[in-house]
Write a structure and sequence with these properties.
about 35% helix, alpha/beta, single chain, purine biosynthesis, two-stranded antiparallel ribbon, GART_AS, binds 5-O-phosphono-beta-D-ribofuranosylamine, about 25% strand, 9 strands, about 200 residues, Formyl_transf_N, Phosphoribosylglycinamide formyltransferase, globular
Length: about 200
Amino acid sequence: KRLVVLASGGGSNLAALLAAHDDAAYGARVVGVVTDNPAAGALDLAHDAGVASVVVSPKDFHDRSAWNDGISEAVAVFLPDYVVLAGFMRILAPSFVRRYEGRLVNTHPALLPSFPGAHGVRDALAHGVKVTGCTVHLVDEGVDTGPIIAQSAVPVLDGDDEGMLHERIKIAERALLVETVGRIAREGLYVAGRQVTIG
Ligand code: GRF
């Protein structure tokens, strides 16, 4: 199966997918990386892995809607079976979500529905939870509200700051994303309302 990965930052989740995709048994290959950020470390990872990448920066477009169309077309060029948002820090328009709905997957560094949005790690820490984690979910037109596919729990330890906690979450997150995307690619994804089953 063909994966297109959208990333905005360092790309440790992308790195994990690139490491897994070399195994033919994994069932999926990253065929394209699309980013909004010309400085994304994800671009270097794609280059080093010999995977095509495209920068679609909001600065290059007249408005948000045009940028969304640009991102949508850039993704389509790669003929994806699945689109994976791995540390992608922009909200995608309903038109994008509808175009890829059912095959658009996101990873979030908290146990949704708790702590959605751009500061899930900070919000969980501030709330004083003892257990947080990460969630792989289908993207719908809300922010981090789509049907949940898989989750992994991560303890909050005394003395954690946001960075320490996020790094601990990212260890679990990378593993969960690689495992979940591989299973979806090999077995398929079935959605009935908010219930998602693989295979
Ligand atoms: C991940 O924790 C992702 O869930 C969040 O930002 C982080 C990105 O990490 N949105 P990376 O760019 O994959 O290293």
